[in-house]
Structures are given as structure tokens and as C-alpha cells.
Task: structure prediction
Amino acid sequence: MSISRSVFSFPTRTIFGLNTLNELPEQLKQLGIRKPLLVTDGGLLSTPAFALIEGVLGKASRGKAWELFSDVHPNPIESDVIGAANAYRKASCDGVIAFGGGSALDVGKAARLLLKKPEFKLADFDWKQDWNGLAPCICIPTTAGTGSEVGRSSVIILEKTKRKGVLFHPGLLANLVILEPEVTRGLPPKLTAATGADALTHCIESFTSPSFHPLCDGVALEGIHLTVEALPKAVANGNDLEARGQMLVAAAMGAIAFQKDLGATHSLAHPLSSVCGMHHGLANALCLPAVMRFNARRKPGLYRRVGIAAGLNVLGASAEDADRQTIDFVARLFEQIGIKPGLRAHGVSEAHVDVMSPQAFEDGCHQTNPVPVTMADLRQLYIEAL
Ligand SMILES: [Fe+2]
Result:
């Protein structure tokens, strides 16, 4: 164990449980928010989840006691953030409720940057700038996967570069997170599976990344335990609110864990979204077993504790056997939740691999992979995952 200096921080206040959404008005009061801007994506407006939060805030008082901004793209762009900040100013709001999947949460969090500095261009963002004292923000996720609600970054496609920029600053953290299982009830099985796979990938990649963060390691292992238990149930029966709740907690834990780091799976997944338009969680699920096999060949025994957290009896197994059993378990779990293995089954071809490999190598996540990867390795991993 390293005894060199490390800094640990787990600061987000989180309220979890059934009907906790009803506490929203009281929590707004406690944060001194009198008129919140509800930031969400348009696709949510017709869902029971939106009806729930609209009911809690008061349908009739929309435009008076609270304001709505719902122009958020699935992969949010800079103008979404500008739009949210403009809506906030126009309606004289004094706080943000970010409600939705990762996109709405990221836009809600980032809009506060432009409230502090109205003329600011997100492309000029630097974490060393003073971003303290941002407007208060409550995050309420409606999916269990990205964990953006507990993250200190927003991923926004920047106008200047047309590429995803990661805006990272501790000041971006939400002041409060509400994990209400009821708002994830309506998430279809396919999305439940894909977002849950993202959460599991966060836990596995962060646990096995080499930097020193035993707090995150502990969180990641429990996140794995919760996910393997709850994800099949949540996919099989979306009304299983206990499983839904467990997945919300696991997803938040995955994101808390990956403040440590991620690995090569995420580097492979990012171009699958930008080039092939694939859902991020699905992309992770399709690449994770191949990356685990690659890593285990070079670091035998790497996945033993992942297997133990998943409930496998691999404590006394040889290093190779513990890895094999764990990787097989993860691959089977993905199949069990309805994810058809193989990139080809999802429209990816060798021609895509040629385009994606350099982009995967450019992506920073693989730099904290348990073993170093070259561009040729990433290409080979795509081929293996085909
Ligand atoms: Fe992810």
C-alpha cells in the first residue's frame, strides 16, 4: 500500500428512497431556492416521471414559482447550456433542478457556469479558473447509469471544436442529489440494461485502474455487488422498485468510484457513440469482456476480487481461473439482460474499426487502464469485440 500523499473527497449530500421526490419543495427551501429552473430533455415531458415532478412542484405554478427548460439534446451541445442559462436569467430563477439522464444533468450543472460569467465561452473553460459559488443545484437522475448526479464534470459538445469537451471543476457538484426509484420505473428494459451496464463498467474499470484510492475501491466493489444482484431484476420487471432503487445507488457509486479513474473500455466506447451513434452503456457492454480478457492475460488475477464481489467462489481458484470465471460471468450477465454480444450485431463493421481506432487511442481513459494499450491493441480489441 502506498503511503504517499493522496486526497479523498466524497461530498455530495444524497437522499435516497421511495417517495423522496416529495421532499423536493422542502429541500429547495433549505437551499434558499425560491424559483428553480427545471432543466430536462424534451423526451421526458410526456413520461410519468415528468408528471411526478410536475405534480410535486405544482403544475399550475409553472411559469410563476418555477420555470421549465427542456431543449437538451441527447448528446448535449453548447447552445443547450446557453439556452438554459438564458431561460434562468429571463425568469429570474435562483437555482437549478437538473432532472433526467446524463444529458439533462450535465446541462443543468454546466448552465451555472454561464450564470456566473455570462459572456464566457465554454471552449475557454479551465478548471483553474474561479468557479466557486455557482448557483445551487439539485440533481435527480431518471436513469441508473452515468452517475452524473454525483460527478464534478459536464460533458458538452463545444461549438468551436464540434467535439465533446469535459468541463471539470469541484464547483460543478450538485448541492443535493435525490435518488427516487419511482422516476426510473418507466425506463424501458433495453435502456435499463444499457445504462446498468455503464454503471457496472464504471465499477469494474475504476476498481482495476492502478492509482491509489482505497475509498473508491471499496465503493466500486459494493457497486458491483449491488449491480449484479439488481440489474437482471430491474430489466426483467421494471416495476421492481427495490431493484430500481438498488440500481440508482449502484450507478451513483460507480460514478463516485470513477473519480479514481476509468480504463480502455471507455476509450473504445466513446468512438462507438460518436462514429456509430451507439448508446454509451451498450458500447461499454460490448467491449468490456474483450478488455477484461486482454488485461487478465497481462495481469493474471486482476479480476479475482471483482468475481468475489459478484458472488463467485473464486477465492481459492488459480489466478487464471478466477479471471476466466469472472469474465465469463460478466459476459453471461450482459446476455442475460438482453444485450446481444458482438459489435457486428449492432451495425459495426471493420470499416468503422479503422475510423474508430485512432480516436480510441486519442481518448484519455485508457491511460489509466491496468496495463498500457497501444493503438494496435485498441484496434485488436475492436476486432475481438466484433
Ligand atoms: Fe460510462
User: Anything to note?
Assistant: The radius of gyration is 20 Å. Residues 198, 202, 266, 280, 284 surround fe (ii) ion (CB under 6 Å). The CA atoms of residues 39 and 98 lie 5 Å apart. The mean pLDDT is 95.
